[in-house]
Amino acid sequence: LRYLFKTYSLYHKGSVQIVELLKGDNKKATIANVQNFFLDEDKYPTIRRRSGDWGIKSPQNDITGIRGSRRGNGSEKSMIEYAEYTLAKRAVDYAIAGCSSSYRHPSQQIIKYRYIQGLSLSVIKERINKFGNSTYYRADDYACLEFADCLEAVCERLNVDSDIIPDLRAKNRKKTGQKGDEKRTKTGIQREI
């Protein structure tokens, strides 16, 4: 009986797409990485905060012509940081827009309602018309997997710094003792760590 249930769940229409999405990746860890990305104060909330333009000031020149500090141009550093975080915020927005928005897979709505707006689960279930717990959590898992896949593609195209947005897709490690991982750089070139 368990074998039949597992076989049915693998061939069930919604589950087949989850199985096919992110082949070779650790799906549970990827889902946890996406949830952590949105809920951890050092990740997405920081990107949103630092991409705002309220902290940017125009460079001020000293009327005496003497530089006051040897540490470098603070305005230039803040402008560069602002540009990097604005690009990262844009990548997240594009990745959300790249997710499904159908009745069957309301990934965009789940990401927006749960992880960005922070609505309660009962409100989200009502808005996306998925009332059962297992039905909702399957849809949430699918949304997280789809978002991770879209985000990595967008980050590669926009050359987003991987220190700001890391690859959320958790790879299954080989048991041969391989410890390196690929990492995006600012130039978009992959390098081994």
Could you characterize the architecture of this molecule?
By secondary structure, this protein is mostly helical. Helix content is 55%, strand content 3%. It has helices at 2-11, 13-20, 27-39, 44-50, 74-98, 107-116, 121-128, 133-158; strands at 182-184, 190-192. It has a two-stranded antiparallel ribbon. Strand 1 and strand 2 (190-192) form a beta hairpin. Helix 2 packs parallel to helix 8, helix 5 (74-98) packs across helix 8 and helix 6 (107-116) crosses helix 8. It is globular and about 55 Å long.
Low-confidence stretches: 1-19
Mean pLDDT: 77
Rg over CA atoms? 21 Å
What is the N-to-C succession of helices and strands? Answer: HHHHHHHHEE
Shape: globular
Total beta-strand segments: 2
Distance between the termini: 46 Å
Strand proportion, as a percent range, falls in: under 5%
Q: Which range best describes the helical content: under 10%, 10-25%, 25-40%, 40-55%, 55-70% or over 70%?
A: 55-70%
